[in-house]
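Justification of computing resources. Each target in the renewal requires a structure prediction run like the one illustrated here; the chain below, 172 residues long, is used simply to show the kind of job we budget for.
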Amino acid sequence: MGDRQQAVDRVDVIMKQVAQVSTAPDLTSKELCQRIQRVAHHLETRLRRELAVFGIEPWEIELLASLRRVGPPHQVTAGSLQDIMQLTTGAVTKRVAALEKKGWVRREVDAGDRRQVLVCLTDEGEQRALEVFATKTETEARVLSALDLATQRRLNDDLRTLLIDLEGAVRT
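Resulting structure tokens:
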């Protein structure tokens, strides 16, 4: 592990250049943000490549997974989907429409409140999601495999602290 800590990554090179022109006293936050962005980019790129074999985009599996997680009958309001996926109303509408065309979701009017639209996972959508969940999980594990489980847990705890500060705690 000692050799690995001595290695230089692209962010180190970028930050050395930034430090030469920056007047900021500490660039640690910038350095961390650069690394988070680059890791997210690598994860997104690999997920797209792995999921392309199944003819599904990462956003499609995330929407299907969001519906599946709520348990039977696997339906939520469009507004709840907007909150879960952190999207605008228009983006949710567009994505739901695309998956509805594929037969993976359907929209229904909420019988309890006719102003609400429910987005429901179809049997075909659930089947499609189950086909690719393992591949997605395996890809995520491969991307993070350079970090042992203790490090992954510590990063999870630290990033949870940051997200709670940015988004607030969630009641379960």
